[in-house]
Amino acid sequence: DVRHGPILYLEDVSVSFDGFKAINNLNLTIDDGELRCIIGPNGAGKTTMMDIITGKTRPDTGSVWFGSRHNLLNMNEPEIARLGIGRKFQKPTVFEALSVFENLELAMAMDKGLWPTLRARLTTEVRERIDEVLATIGLVELRQRQAGILSHGQKQWLEIGMLLMQRPRLLLVDEPVAGMTEQEMERTAELLTGLAGRHSVVVVEHDMGFVRSIARTVTVLHQGQVLAEGSMDSVSSDPRVIDVYLGG
Ligand code: ADP
To answer: Where in the numbering of this chain does the ABC transporter domain appear (predicted)?
Structure first.
C-alpha cells in the first residue's frame, strides 16, 4: 500500500444550482497513490464533485486543496490540468483518423505546446515515454492501428494512455467500464490498479462487481454529502447505503 498523506482535500464544499444544493458541505480526502471509488445514486453529486475538482464548476463555499500547497479555487481549468489533474470522461474521445502511436504523440504535444513542430522533436525521450505508456495500456501490438477501428475497450485504454502521457498525479475517471465486455473489464481493473501508487486515481462507477474488484476504499455520495466511506464490505452492508443505493 503506497500512501503518503493526502493529495486532494475538499473541505466543507457546497454548490447550489438554482437554490438546489447539488453539493452540500462535502468533505473528502484522497491519499497520494490511492485508488478510490465513488458510488452513489443518480443526482448524488458525483459529476458536480469532479467538475469542482477540475475547476469547471466553482463552489459557493469551502476549499479544495491539491498536493497540500495548491488552493484550486484560485486556479482556472487549464492551470489545474497543468498541475497534474487529468480527467477521463465516460465517452472515449480519441483522434479516430490517427494511429494509436500518433494519438499518444499528439497527447504529449498538446501538453508541451510542441505541435505542429512535433515530428522534428520526436525525441528519444518522447518515443520512450510512448513505449512505456503503450505497455501500460496493453496496446504495444496495436501501435500502428488506426484508432477509429479499435474496440470500445481499446479506445478507452488509449484515452487513459493519452492522459498518462502528461504524467498526471491525479486521474479522475468517469464510468470506465460502461459498455465493456467482461474481459475488457478485467483488463481495465488491472490497468487502473496498476496505475495506483504512481498516480492517485478516483473512479466514479456504477458497476458494483467492478468496484469490488478494484477498490480498497469506497466513498458513497448521497445528496451532495458523504453518506458512508470504507471497504466495499463495510459500505455494502451499511443499512443507509442499502436503503438509498443498493436496495433496488
Ligand atoms: P451524479 O453525477 O451523482 O448523477 P450530478 O452531479 O450530475 O450527480 O447532479 C447532482 C444534482 O445537481 C442533480 O440533481 C442535477 O440535476 C443537479 N445539477 C448538476 N449540474 C447542474 C447544473 N449545471 N444546473 C442545474 N442543476 C445541476
So the answer is: 8-248
* pTM confidence score: 0.93
Complex-level ipTM beyond the 0.85 threshold = yes
- Rg from Cα positions in the chain: 18
Other beta carbons within 10 Å of 70:
17
For position 141, which CATH number holds? 3.40.50.300
Evaluate whether residue 87 is within a structural domain.
Answer: yes
Q: Whose CA is nearest to atom 24 of ligand 1?
A: 17
* Tens-digit pLDDT profile for residues 69-128: 788 998 999 899 989 999 999 888 899 999 999 999 988 877 655 555 555 567 888 899
**Residue 49 CA, ligand 1 centroid: distance in Å:** 10
Grid coordinates in use for 183?
A: 474481459
- Is 1 within a domain? no
